[in-house]
Amino acid sequence: MTDFVSAEWVASRSDLRLVDVRDAWEYDGLGHLPGAVNVPFDSFRADEHAAEASDGDGSGMLPAEDDWADLLSTAGIDRESEIVAYDDHHGVFAARFLVTAELLGHDPERLHLLDGDFSSWQLERETSSETPDVEPTEYAVQRPASTPLVGPDEVAAAADDPDAVVVDTREDEEYDAGHIPGAVLLDWRDLVDDETRGLLAREAALSVLESAGILPEKRVVLYCNTARRISHTYVVLRHLGFERVDFYEGSLTEWEVQDRPLETN
User: Fold this and answer.
1) Which of 24, 111, 201, 214 could make a disulfide contact with 2, Cβ separation 3.0–4.6 Å?
2) Of all helices (H) and strands (E), which one includes residue 4?
3) pLDDT tier for residue 50 given thresholds of 50, 70 and 90
4) Residue 54 above 60 pLDDT?
5) Which GO molecular function annotations are given, in alphabetical order (predicted)?
6) Dihedral sign (CA 205, 208, 211, 212)
7) What integer pLDDT is reported at residue 61 of this predicted model?
8) Into how many domains does the chain fold?
9) Under a CB-based contact definition with an 8 Å cutoff, are residues 27 and 263 in contact?
């Protein structure tokens, strides 16, 4: 499963493909983890028109398979690569890269999110300004037989299911302005330690989740606006051992295009 790994673990390994999802100017101008390749967030983020055009199949804003395969091939990633992704924003953009990889068939056991980000890494560890030479691959997308993707009808049904909880991972103001009926609020940043820039300690994270009614025994259905913020929360929940975590890729962009109801506070 996609999980968090420490800087110490990353530094001790020489067999990882490190992926920096920051903008190219940050990667080049501010430095990066030694050996990391640059795959900027905007290069694999489909725009909102993708969700607007969705027919409810769950694809939402995932990139086209050929585009994704080309990106990974150019970055020297193959289907056996063990990947650690990072950014400089508490991992939320890097998490989107990893969840995209999982949904498009990369083995989740080989996908990891750096616990912390570039800023926390450079406080104690070496960075580099050299772009590594990589051998291009022929990455081939092989979608898995099943994924956590759900469509709007399943989300609406989950809101009425006592064994499920629909979770809005946006900010308070966004939630108050309009959310899926029955959804609870969990700002994704509530699971981040501002000092370490990484994940809260396990018991603290579980306490935050419990206070929002998000329990391991429940099925959890996540959404935000454009599937970026739920990517981080998805990785957190899977890392903490939650077994039933569903991912509404279309999120509110798709929900609102379909004129589905919203609740306001």
Assistant:
1) 111
2) strand 3-5
3) low
4) no
5) thiosulfate-cyanide sulfurtransferase activity
6) negative
7) 78
8) 2
9) no
What is the predicted pLDDT for the residue at 59? 56
Measured in whole angstroms, the distance separating CA 243 from the mean position of its chain's CA atoms is 16
The average confidence (pLDDT) of the chain is 94
Average pLDDT of the residues in 86-98: 97
Return the structure tokens found at 101: 């990889």
Single out the residue of 113, 96, 93, 90 nearest to residue 195, CA to CA.
90
Task: Name the nearest CA neighbour of 204 among 190, 215, 218.
Answer: 190
**CA pair distance 227, 168, nearest whole angstrom:** 11
Q: The pTM is what?
A: 0.94
**Residue 191 gets which letter from DSSP?**
G
User: Does residue 227 form part of some domain?
Assistant: yes
Residue for token digits 């006592």?
Answer: 162
Of 104, 124, 144, the residue at which a domain comes to its end is 124
Instruction: Please indicate, yes or no, whether residues 116 and 179 belong to a single structural domain of this protein.
Output: no
265 inside domain: no
pLDDT confidence of 105, banded at 50, 70, 90?
very high
119 and 214 together in one domain = no
Q: How far apart are CA 245 and CA 175, in angstroms?
A: 20
- Over residues 18-36, the mean pLDDT reads 97
- Claim to verify: residue 120 and residue 10 sit in the same structural domain: yes
Q: Which helix (H) or strand (E) holds 157?
A: helix 152-159
Three-state SS letters, 135-150: CCCCCCCCCCCCCCEC
Note the pLDDT of residue 47: 62
- The answer to whether the beta carbons of residues 65 and 49 sit under 8 Å apart is no
Q: What are phi and psi of 184, to 5 degrees?
A: -100, 160
Residue 231's domain comprises: 152-257
Query: What whole-number distance in Å separates Cα of residue 98 and Cα of residue 235?
Result: 9
